[in-house]
Design goal:
By secondary structure, the chain is an all-alpha fold. It has five helices and no strands. The protein is elongated and about 55 Å long.
């Protein structure tokens, strides 16, 4: 991350080097959340088959939950005194969850892929948790537990 403009300085008592590590992990999680959100909406929009209604509604609920986490992640980055992602290009440079641009994906394949992606997101949140604990960033360490639980639940359902 480039040096921040002094106008973007955020007061924090956390050590600068430690917060950079936390912010990098948070930004990677943020990129993955946006990638997973868009993939979930894509599958929601292109769902077909006999269970269409149930899956369509499930994926809409999951997408809303994922999108709801993005603001909290970005605000945690800013509260550590760092900057967050700025564009779709920035997201693509940081995401580890792959896109799916196939013309057709069957419902079973969609659900299996989203399950695996949510488990990848859990792994990313654990990286955030470890970085936050090492930096003594109690606020990030605490809130990431909720995000992890939500992603685990999405993988379960």
């Amino acid at each position: 991350m480039p040096a921040t403009n002094p106008a973007l300085d955020t007061p924090t008592d956390l050590v600068s080097n430690s917060t950079k590590t936390v912010a990098e992990a948070l930004n990677a999680s943020l990129a993955d959340c946006y990638a997973l959100y868009l993939k979930t909406k894509n599958f929601h929009w292109h769902m077909s088959g006999p269970h269409f209604r149930d899956y369509h509604l499930l994926l809409d609920d999951q997408a809303a939950q994922i999108l709801g986490v993005t603001d909290a992640i970005a605000e945690r980055v800013r509260k550590t005194g760092n900057t967050t992602l700025r564009s779709i290009g920035d997201i693509s440079r940081h995401q580890s969850i792959p896109d799916n641009d196939k013309d057709f994906v069957g419902p079973t394949e969609m659900l299996a892929e989203l399950r695996e992606d949510n488990l990848k997101l859990v792994e990313q949140f654990r990286i955030v948790k470890d970085a936050a604990d090492e930096a003594k960033d109690n606020a990030t360490s605490g809130i990431v537990d909720e995000w992890t639980d939500q992603a685990e639940e999405r993988a379960w359902f």
